[in-house]
Write a structure and sequence with these properties.
Among the domains are: 99 residues, Ubiquitin-like (UB roll), CATH 3.10.20; 137 residues, no CATH class. The protein is 57% helix and 9% strand. A hairpin with a 2-residue loop joins strand 2 and strand 3. Helix 6 packs across helix 7, helix 8 packs antiparallel against helix 9 and helix 9 runs parallel beside helix 10. The longest helix has 27 residues.
Length: 351
């Protein structure tokens, strides 16, 4: 299923800029709201603009000011929650590098109370703690830390590296990282049932997310796909994002794996920017595959065209790329009317 276009999209989604390439201060380029019928970007900017500006200022100062910035972030989310009848409020800070500029786009992710069931079809939070299967969860945390250190030391790799999992962090591998991957290859297959119990029943979201990534060391791509789709019902975004990250790798690099795409569609409208960005990465892989391209055009394009209106450059860029791949059209990313008209026509034809 691998193609150059899909590889580039996945790299853009998963790679993180090296710290040395990031300018020291950021400029706020916009405030957005996704999505509410009562709370608008203009309302948020008018009522909370000064506090938002102070958040950016303190974030740019760094050091001890970051503690105050994080406090302001919590206050801003609480302030927005009082502006309407909302079931969910989160504040996402999108960062991007444009030439020598470091830009911020702040998105308030909202779910109107009336849309809770449709947009948050999640299981109840698990209660209780389960044992660490063979110490694998602890080893995964060490692995994740080593990957973060490797990423911070240099530019992200431009191609997916070879690794023995259906999910691969895009980093240069060290001997310590390879040793842990070899451990997971040896141990995960015999511990899959225990890891699956952690995924469904441990109250710690961090451990459930670790179980998601470890289960990608399974030898069965169909089993991994099914477990990842099931994890999309998790109440915590950390777990859902982990599952979508594995699926994004799987659809591009996992060979001819059957994906139950209708179960993916709701994720395009899930509550957080992180959910939607990773869902778009999965659809980017599906869009270049002939078995899925027509389905994506007819069933998903209307929602993807809606995401094109996002001010977050990661969401908007991926949405535009997916639409271009499934349509063959080259409308600009700000020609919303043309994209939405095309998407509506495809949806009508698919009925």
């Amino acid at each position: 299923m691998s193609t150059p276009a899909a590889s580039l999209l996945l790299c853009a989604t998963l790679a993180v800029p090296a710290g040395a390439a990031v300018p020291s201060t950021a400029t706020l380029r916009g405030v957005d709201v996704y999505r509410s019928e009562t709370v608008t970007p203009d309302m948020v900017t008018r009522l909370l603009g000064q506090k938002i500006a102070l958040f950016v200022l303190r974030s740019n100062e760094g050091g001890t000011a970051l503690k105050f910035a994080n406090q302001l972030k919590g206050e801003l989310a609480a302030d927005v929650s009082r502006l309407g009848d909302l079931a969910f409020v989160d504040m996402h800070v999108g960062r991007s590098i444009r030439a020598a500029a470091y830009d911020l786009v702040i998105t308030f992710d909202l779910v109107d109370a009336k849309d809770r069931l449709a947009r948050m079809p999640f299981a109840a939070p698990p209660v209780g703690r389960l044992p660490d299967p063979g110490g694998l969860l602890g080893q995964w945390r060490r692995y994740w830390e080593l990957c973060a250190q490797a990423r911070s030391r240099g530019e992200p790799v431009s191609e997916r590296p070879a690794c023995p999992s259906f999910y691969c962090p895009w980093i240069e591998r060290t001997d310590a990282i390879r040793e842990l991957e070899e451990l997971f290859v040896r141990e995960v297959p015999s511990r899959q049932a225990e890891l699956a119990r952690v995924l469904s029943g441990d109250e710690r979201a961090q451990d459930r997310a670790a179980a998601v990534y470890l289960l990608a060391f399974s030898t069965s791509a169909p089993a991994v796909a099914e477990r990842m789709l099931g994890a999309l019902a998790d109440p915590d975004k950390e777990v859902r994002v982990a599952a979508l990250s594995v699926l994004a790798d799987l659809v591009v690099y996992g060979g001819e794996v059957a994906i139950d795409v209708p179960r993916l569609l709701p994720a395009l409208d899930y509550p957080t920017t992180e959910d939607r960005t990773k869902a778009l990465a999965v659809f980017a892989g599906l869009a270049v595959h002939p078995n899925y391209k027509t389905y994506v055009a007819g069933r998903a394009a209307v929602q993807i065209a809606r995401l094109l209106r996002s001010r977050d450059p990661g969401v908007r860029g991926l949405a535009h790329s997916v639409l271009g791949m499934v349509s063959g059209r080259d409308y600009p990313d700000d020609d919303f009317e043309s994209w939405e008209k095309w998407a509506r026509e495809e949806a009508a034809a698919a009925r």
